[in-house]
């Protein structure tokens, strides 16, 4: 029961993340931004993850996972509420503040829920539990993009083309009107958040703390190490550091691809309505969901790291096609990339957390992995810079292609490590 309650929360951060993809397209036109400036939406969003993950882990240590999750939901609710004044003030900076506040809440939620889901049951099934829970995230992504399509893009047509035909005064007034539409999806999300908050608040949740056994055979909660001791342990764990770097590259790649897919479609077909371009993101999230299901099936039959190695190499090839072929095939290749994103995030998360054998370091280790989400703030900005410097949004997709190559190398190296350890274990028998 408790695990299912936690699973309800996973789609909620997917909805907020996918709405950013709509906002980037809207803000670029209304505020007349270049590609680098539009990436600030993701910088504000994922930058909050980097700043808040460690404080969230400290709260988990001092209080409980449930308290941290409720704190995250509270910030999420406040952030959504800030879209009310943001839509009235209608400045880019005010919207960024609201997005940052939402992301503060999501940082608490991901730091808590990812680790908590992996702990609610037998250790040997931790990876499967987290992958199951993360399979629900694309449903939230689809919800967010559908809300954006029908509420924010409800004006119809191509916003950039429409405003280009207006006088400066008319375009400014029309842009302000379009910004009012950004409030609508967040009203809907607010209702869901309040319901989930109340369900969690009245549900008894296990503490899921690390325990050891004393000399009399009694379970005793382990003493929490200091931050200095924790950092010394984690920084000395080579495989843990590799996992954090892989997560940084993965989230950066995923965010970059999704941030610019709608824009790429509009650039390749300059007469395409914004709402039609949004359909490519709906299909992308559906492909991501199917990719997770297929990978989960394969990972139950074959080596997890081997399956993800193949996924990553095929995803890299899809991105090479995306930046190399100058027609609509590039869009379909970008959609295929979403299929190969599959379960990379939860697999890297659970796999990296599993390298932490001393479980008293688990909360902080989980926070460090969540901090790697800051890749979502860095890589879209780099892709935006490449796009502005080369004057080719399509060529800038070389940035996520390089990221996927790094993720592929990570899974390949982990597969080789596991094969080596299995051989050593067999020889010792």
From TrEMBL:
Q: What Pfam families would the database entry show?
A: MFS_1
Q: Where is the Major facilitator superfamily (MFS) profile domain?
A: 1-418
How does it sit in the bilayer? Multi-pass membrane protein
Full protein name? L-fucose transporter
SUPFAM superfamilies, sorted: MFS general substrate transporter (SSF103473)
What GO molecular functions are on record for this protein? fucose:proton symporter activity
Tell whether Transmembrane helix is among the UniProt keywords. yes
The record lists the organism as Ligilactobacillus ceti DSM 22408
């Amino acid at each position: 029961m408790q695990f299912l309650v936690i699973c309800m929360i996973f789609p909620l951060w997917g909805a907020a993340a996918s709405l950013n993809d709509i906002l980037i397209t809207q803000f670029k036109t209304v505020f007349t931004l270049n590609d680098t400036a539009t990436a600030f939406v993701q910088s504000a969003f994922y930058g909050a993850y980097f700043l808040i993950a460690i404080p969230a882990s400290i709260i988990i240590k001092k209080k409980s996972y449930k308290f941290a999750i409720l704190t995250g939901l509270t910030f999420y609710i406040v952030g959504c509420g800030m879209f009310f004044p943001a839509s009235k003030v209608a400045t880019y900076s005010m919207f960024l503040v609201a997005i940052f506040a939402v992301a503060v809440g999501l940082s608490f939620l991901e730091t808590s829920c990812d680790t908590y889901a992996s702990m609610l049951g037998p250790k040997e099934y931790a990876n499967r539990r987290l992958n199951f829970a993360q399979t629900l995230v694309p449903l939230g992504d689809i919800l967010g993009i559908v809300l954006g399509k029908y509420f924010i893009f409800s004006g119809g047509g191509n916003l950039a083309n429409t405003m280009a035909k207006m006088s400066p005064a008319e375009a400014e007034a029309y842009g302000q009107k379009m910004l009012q539409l950004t409030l609508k999806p967040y009203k809907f999300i607010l209702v869901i958040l309040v319901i989930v908050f109340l369900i969690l608040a009245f549900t008894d949740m296990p503490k899921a703390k690390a325990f050891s056994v004393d000399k009399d055979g009694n379970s005793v909660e382990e003493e929490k190490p200091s931050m200095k001791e924790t950092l010394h342990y984690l920084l000395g764990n080579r495989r843990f550091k590799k996992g954090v770097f892989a997560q940084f590259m993965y989230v950066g790649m995923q965010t970059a691809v999704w941030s610019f897919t709608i824009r790429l479609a509009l650039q390749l077909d300059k007469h395409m309505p914004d709402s039609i371009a949004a359909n490519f993101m709906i299909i992308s999230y559906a492909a991501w969901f199917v990719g997770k299901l297929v990978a989960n099936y394969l990972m139950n039959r074959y080596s997890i790291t081997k399956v993800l190695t193949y996924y990553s190499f095929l995803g890299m090839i899809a991105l090479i096609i995306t930046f190399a072929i100058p027609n609509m095939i590039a869009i379909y290749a970008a959609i295929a990339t979403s299929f190969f994103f599959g379960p990379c995030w939860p697999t890297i998360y659970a796999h990296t957390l599993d390298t932490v054998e001393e479980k008293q370091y688990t909360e902080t280790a989980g926070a460090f992995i969540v901090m790697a989400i800051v890749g979502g703030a860095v890589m879209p900005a780099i892709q935006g810079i490449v796009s502005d410097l080369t004057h080719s949004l399509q060529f800038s997709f070389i940035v996520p292609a390089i990221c996927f190559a790094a993720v592929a190398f990570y899974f390949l190296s982990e597969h080789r490590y596991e094969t080596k350890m299995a051989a050593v274990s067999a020889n010792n028998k």
